[in-house]
Amino acid sequence: MAQLRIALAQVDTTVGDLDGNAELVSSWTKQALARSAHLVVFGEMTLTGYPAEDLVLRRSFVAASAAALERLAVRLAEEGAGEIAVVVGYLDASPTPAPAVGRPAGEPQNCVAVLWQGRVAARSAKHHLPNYGVFDEFRYFVPGTTFPVFRLHGVDVGLTVCEDLWQEGGPVAVAREVGVGLLLCINGSPYEQGKSYHRDELCARRAREAGATLAYVNLVGGQDELVFDGDSLVVDAGGEVLARAPVFAETLLTVDLDLPEGAGTGVGPETGPDGPVDAGDGTTMAVSRVVLAADPLPAWEPRPATVADRPDPAGELYAAVVTGTRDYVRKNGFRSVALGLSGGIDSALVATIAVDALGPDAVHTVAMPSAHSSQGSLDDAAELARRQRTRHSVVPIEPTVAAFHAALAAAGGLHGLAAENLQARVRGTLLMALSNEHGHLVLTTGNKSELATGFSTLYGDSAGGFAPIKDVSKTNVWALARWRNARAVARGEVPPIPEEIIVKPPSAELAPGQLDSDRLPDYSVLDAVLDDYVSHDLGRAELTAAGHAPETVDRVIRLVDLAEYKRRQNPPGPKVTSKAFGRDRRLPITSRWRERDHSAG
Ligand SMILES: Nc1ncnc2c1ncn2[C@@H]1O[C@H](COP(=O)(O)OP(=O)(O)OC[C@H]2O[C@@H]([n+]3cccc(C(=O)O)c3)[C@H](O)[C@@H]2O)[C@@H](O)[C@H]1O
Ligand SMILES: Nc1ncnc2c1ncn2[C@@H]1O[C@H](COP(=O)(O)OP(=O)(O)OP(=O)(O)O)[C@@H](O)[C@H]1O
Ligand SMILES: NC(=O)CC[C@H](N)C(=O)O
């Protein structure tokens, strides 16, 4: 056996910031060195940030990434970090053509490199490319066909990238064939509710298949609509969890491992196959071997590893929206946000998320009462602002609404829904004006149930820069509010959200006595249909067979289908479910397809 101290660097990168990301690698590598680690591992495409989307198609960006990697290798050695192996994800051009996918040499690849003693000692590319949900990697990358193994202090270490674990065959099968002591997987695996349990199961299964300890390192932080939760972990060859990093936090997880010593010299056929190996997925992979340090180190007393607790599901979801909001605001150069605070649950939750993400001084809440606003709502908004110490102001909209009506009187005036929506539009205009004047980013407050059904006013309450709860159903909005209050109570703090806001029946207050239930089914009924129609893509016959009332199904389907145009104009917001609106669910706006029981002819 041989020992290694490995460090998993779960860090928050920024897309396109090659210098800043190189700086991150340097500073976290120094921390790993300070802990006497022999190997430090960073996430997928750490140097470029992930996902870099169509930046990947720019030759200048690919070249800059490859050059930044070379510079980083030299820099690390100059900084005294030449004797720690640094595994880092980056973007590079394919050195050879890829006949299997009909692409020439020089096309982008999602790469991983090993930096050692001032040089790039090994590099390879992701073999399995995800091309579903939010991923479009066939559009961007040419698959890798080489499995790299490097020997470090007597241990053979193999490299894989994210999706390589999620599909059968490929690098994991080759790892078993070749026989590695440690398999590394660098990831850019976005958060979804419940996904961590799939990952645990997957890591355990692949470690057993490879017959090797598996170290899984994930990114952390928000990038536009994605939130990376970290949750990096190490499992032994039997699938038992040895160490786990906390979720939604930058961290360095250090683990002492006892690993099998590699056979032979570490290079060439003496060690094992280095010619093409059947990858069990219809392809063959070459094996590339390099020796960094052949001999095991003198033994030492291993330190116990930490296995961080996971938050409960609501806590995890809350941390995801806070992280997504904080990183969007920060990485886009904003220092403050503004939102309309109505006294309702949606804006109350968004204000609370913003305060937790940015601190109360950065959160500007604006109450904008109209003729239909109840005193209760105004009081509730003021009480929330007081409890959370937001920068609160009250801007009555009545005079502005009256001026619009007067302006349009000669054109026939505004009635019904048009008059109702005007109030939302006046509020949207006021918030955008404050954004322009003070540099606040406007947060919209719409939830997933509203986004699904088009229950918002275009250029009104849906106008803004970021939508923190756009992938959170109304049912979960209440659950998160209750969870956040309960957490405060458990810590001996005042609950941030006044109870009245949580228990009152939801209303847009755009007309006297109006309730959401006048226009929508009860949210518990609505959310159940939405889950099956949107998240699980059930057709009408399947929805009714699943027990949903046919008239509710027809009503909900119609609302969802007709609101596609509205969703396309909605701001970005964190994806937290398995199917968020947007890239996860791409439907035509102009479409005559209507769900009905087509089997009936
Ligand atoms: N296919 C299409 N492609 C592009 N644009 C299209 C379109 N179809 C309509 N439009 C445009 O969209 C307009 C209709 O959309 P819009 O102006 O938004 O108005 P609309 O959807 O008719 O009404 C807003 C709905 O949201 C509800 N609401 C409003 C505000 C807050 C809340 C809440 O509780 O949070 C709920 C309100 O009660 C009402 O049911 C049309 O007048 C037309 O200009
Ligand atoms: N009186 C108001 N003052 C300030 N903002 C308001 C007011 N009324 C509505 N808004 C803004 O418009 C958004 C849509 O609110 P509306 O009351 O129409 O529906 P909602 O979806 O139930 O939201 P909420 O639960 O926050 O009230 C609110 O979340 C808030 O940001
Ligand atoms: N970056 C990736 O390859 C991610 C794909 C993978 N299925 C995940 O979500 O973890």
TrEMBL record:
Region described as Disordered: spans on this chain: 568-601
Function: Catalyzes the ATP-dependent amidation of deamido-NAD to form NAD. Uses L-glutamine as a nitrogen source.
Record InterPro entries: C-N_Hydrolase, C-N_Hydrolase_sf, Gln-dep_NAD_synthase, NAD/GMP_synthase, NAD_synthase, Rossmann-like_a/b/a_fold
Pathway the protein acts in: Cofactor biosynthesis; NAD(+) biosynthesis; NAD(+) from deamido-NAD(+) (L-Gln route): step 1/1
Entry binding sites for ATP: 340-347, 445
Organism: Parafrankia soli
PANTHER family, alphabetized: GLUTAMINE-DEPENDENT NAD(+) SYNTHETASE (PTHR23090:SF9), NH 3 /GLUTAMINE-DEPENDENT NAD + SYNTHETASE (PTHR23090)
Gene it is expressed from: nadE
Identification of the protein by name: Glutamine-dependent NAD(+) synthetase
